[in-house]
Amino acid sequence: MNSITIQKEFHAPVEQVFELLSKHATYNVAFAPVQVVRVKDSADPERPDGVGSVRRMGFGPVKPLQEQIIVLELNERIEYKIIKNPLVKHHLGIIQFQPVDDAKTLVTYTIELQARAPFVSKLILAQLKAAIKMGFSKLAKTV
């Protein structure tokens, strides 16, 4: 299984960083020009971007990637998987939050990926790693 791990320290408390990264709309800022829109709410009305929610990603009206939140542990962990994608056998994203102190949070983002065409996985992961590093740097400036 191919995977990448990115770590970024945010100069904000874990609660603030978790709140930021648990909202689908945040990824519009982090990964612009890619657009992210929630297409299904979670069952929890207090947290519509929570477990069971689905987001679509893409450009303009074409948003072929769908991700579903499968784990949300408040201020600790978010997991999602890609659903309904014929090109991807397995894609799991895990975002972990660890307080460094009262004003700093370490975010560890791991993505496991297995594409249907074996040689494609490493290429996709390299692109994702670069995009996430850049996106996290943008978001870190907003908190």
UniProtKB/TrEMBL annotation:
Task: Mention any Pfam family matching this sequence.
Answer: Polyketide_cyc2
Q: What top-level branch of life does the organism fall under?
A: Bacteria
UniProt-recorded name of the protein: SRPBCC family protein
Native organism: Acinetobacter tianfuensis
